[in-house]
Amino acid sequence: MRPIVRYIFLFLAGIIGILLIWFMAGPFVLRGPLEKPGNQCGLLAAEGWLPESVLNAVADIYTRGCYRKLLVTGVTLPDEVEMLFRGKLVMYPAGSLSLQPGDTLYLKLRGTKALGERAAGHVWMNDTLVGAVFSSRRARWVPLPVPYSFPAVESIGISFDNDAWTRYADRNLYVYGLKIRGKEYLPRSMRAIYIRYLGSGVDTVDLNFSSVPGQAAWFLHRFGIPDNQMDVIAVQGIHSDKTWHSMKALAEFARSHYATDSSLVIVTHPFHARRTLMLARKAFGPSVKVSVIAPFPSRTWWKSGNEIKMFVKESAGLFWAFFRKPALH
To answer: Which residue in 122, 137, 238, 256 is a FRET match for 175, CA 20 to 30 A apart?
Structure first.
């Protein structure tokens, strides 16, 4: 074997070995030192992007503890609406809008694939079925001719009919907007609700929020947390380094409104825990004791495609967090 070939082989073997070691040890490193939910006092914070099930656990942690306030942090919501469950997105256009046969309604859609099929559904106007729509891998405008006369369009509904998931794939529908006679409408720019057909029954979610923590606070209110016990800290116009900017905004808000509190507990995802803790400590400085709670450790993360993606993403994010300089106080 030539020396150059041997060196390449040893290099590749070393890379594979490092990846295997990280595959086994990475989850424990990413989780970091976790605080056990208990009767802590001080401030409790939650990252707004957490799934609904974790937000339910946040409400339970806050209720059982003696926390002074629940702070919800995050960035602005994207324009699109993510439909994770079978259901119907209903939008109520403001002002007068009429459609006649010959008009075309354009919908900007994207869908993920599971079991070889992408998300699909139907479109309704004033509870009248207009037609079927099919999504693609990338967001694109889908034309839908209007077959009937609608002198006054009061509502436009988009149903997601073929929800499905497997261990490594999840079929979801993303609605970016609609366009009528050249004018574009965003789902969140009008009154909109998401009617979800869950195993436990029908559930309606209000979508009129501009930020991730605002939407999370709405769920937390449903889980029993009064609005006057929550503060929403939304960071505007941020599309990268979201955790760092959220932690900086959280630290600035806490120093302005809760300067006497010297402890903070943050609820986050297990794979996000160490990075959140590291960035929060850099944002708050040594004057505040910061700890993290991850309610649902991912014990079988390798069996889920979403968990694998998050493991890879958070591994890279943790690497860059090491080089983040502490915030100036």
So the answer is: 238
In a domain, residue 228? The reply is: yes
Q: Which of 104, 87, 102 is nearest to 157 (CA)?
A: 87
Write the pLDDT tens digit of every residue in 225-256. Answer: 999 999 999 998 777 788 899 999 999 999 99
Same domain membership, residue 221 and residue 138: no
What value does the mean pLDDT take over residues 169-186?
Answer: 92
Share of the chain above pLDDT 90, in %: 47
DSSP character string of 234-270: EE-S--SSHHHHHHHHHHHHHHHH-TT--EEEEE--G
Strand partners, 75: 235
CA distances from residue 42 to 94, 233, 325 in whole angstroms, order as listed: 44, 17, 26
Q: Flag whether pLDDT at 70 surpasses 90.
A: yes
pTM above 0.85, yes or no: no
Q: Where are the alpha helices (DSSP H) in the chain?
A: 3-31, 52-64, 212-222, 242-257, 273-284, 305-321
Identify the domain boundary among 182, 206, 230: 206
Residue 317 belongs to domain spanning: 30-77+209-321
Same domain? 292 vs 143: no
Helix (H, G, I), strand (E, B) or coil at 216: helix
Rounded to 5 degrees, what are φ and ψ at 231? -120, 130
Structure tokens at 123: 């479109």
Rounded Cα gap, residues 194 and 90, in angstroms: 6
Structural domain contains residue 18: no
Last residue of a domain, one of 184, 206, 228: 206
Dihedral sign computed on CA atoms, order 115, 117, 119, 120: negative
As a whole number of angstroms, the distance between CA 290 and CA 278 comes to 9
Distance (Å, whole) CA 46 – CA 85: 24
66 and 149 part of one domain: no
